[in-house]
Structure formats: C-alpha cells, structure tokens
Amino acid sequence: MWTPDELGGAECLGALVDGTSLELCRSELLNPTIDMTGDGVFDSGRMVESDTVFLATDRTGDGFADTVTRIGPDGTYEVWQVSESAASGSAQWRLDDGGLLA
Ligand SMILES: [Ca+2]
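That is the input. Now the predicted structure with calcium ion docked in place:
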C-alpha cells in the first residue's frame, strides 16, 4: 500500500541504489503535508509500501524530492540525497546516512 496523493512517481524510491540517476527516479510532491525544514512551508510527503515508510523532502523548492528517508519495519533507516556526480555532471541518488533507530 502506498499513498499516491502525497507523492507522484514514488514507486521507484524502494529500489534506489547508490548512483541511481535522478532521471530514472524522480518523485514529485503532489500534496505535501509535512514541514521538515521548519519554515512554515509544507516540503515533504509520505509513502508507505509494505512495512516500509518513506519520507520525501524537497529542499530545493522545485517541487521534486531531493532527500528521501526510508524506515524499515526492523527500525533500520537510510537517508538518500540527490547529488551531482563529479564524473558525469548528472544528478544521482546517493546513500548519505543509515543505521538503526534507537
Ligand atoms: Ca527538489
């Protein structure tokens, strides 16, 4: 189950690997309901797929997610960020952080 009312094109977020091109996985915030940056603007949306929760945030304000936090049912989490590849100059998803929620 997932919530397409908040995120569009988000099905690919569950299959991110280090170096996934932004062109291959670009999720649009359709109806963001969360303010992650605290500036009073809703910049994040949620998706639930199986037992995994995804929180997608648009930090650049272009309407597309550039940070995704994936929280698994076992308490593990991963933080994915879009960054420019120095080699190719293209935008890619990179695993930025991860671990176990206390
Ligand atoms: Ca963005």
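The first strand starts at residue 7 and ends at 8.
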